[in-house]
Design brief:
InterPro entries: RidA, RutC-like_sf, YjgF/YER057c/UK114
Oligomer: single chain
Family: Belongs to the RutC family.
Number of strands: 6
Helix content: 10-25%
Number of helices: 2
Structural class: alpha+beta
Strand content: 25-35%
Strand order of the largest sheet: 1-2-3-6-4-5
Pfam family, one: Ribonuc_L-PSP
Radius of gyration: 14 Å
Protein name: RidA family protein
Largest sheet: 6 strands, mixed
Shape: globular
Length: about 130
């Protein structure tokens, strides 16, 4: 059975999708962009954007009773691969080195609201 996960501590969906869905102990988190949920405004600059995206993901994980340790897969979309090193350091700072998820990072030509980064995740209950 599917359960929709939603929290006010992450940005509301800007289209016909849920923040996340839980099915059979697996949490599928929709791509998060750097919108501050308290103001509804975008943050700018790859450092601030990456932190905001990770905070948004963390809020959704928390709502589902999970942490970054539960994440098994991440997909990162960057507007420019030139931002990879900065993003990677910030991304890693939120994770436990003993439980890194599988991941791919791809450069794309455009993202929603013309942001520089979007990250989606899949997590599993222990």
């Amino acid at each position: 059975m599917k359960q929709i996960i939603n929290t006010v501590n992450a940005p509301a969906a800007i289209g016909p999708y849920a923040q996340a869905n839980m099915a059979n102990g697996v949490l599928y988190i929709s791509g998060q962009i750097p919108v501050d949920p308290t103001t509804g405004k975008l943050v700018e600059g790859i450092e601030k954007e990456t932190h905001q995206v990770m905070k948004n993901l963390e809020a959704i994980l928390t709502e589902a009773g999970m942490t970054f340790k539960n994440v098994v897969k991440a997909t990162i979309f960057l507007k420019s691969m030139d931002d990879f090193a900065v993003m990677n350091d910030i991304y890693a700072s939120y994770l436990d080195a003993d439980s890194y998820p599988a991941r791919e990072t791809v450069q794309v030509s455009c993202l929603p609201k013309n942001v520089d980064i979007e990250i989606s995740m899949i997590a599993h209950q222990d």
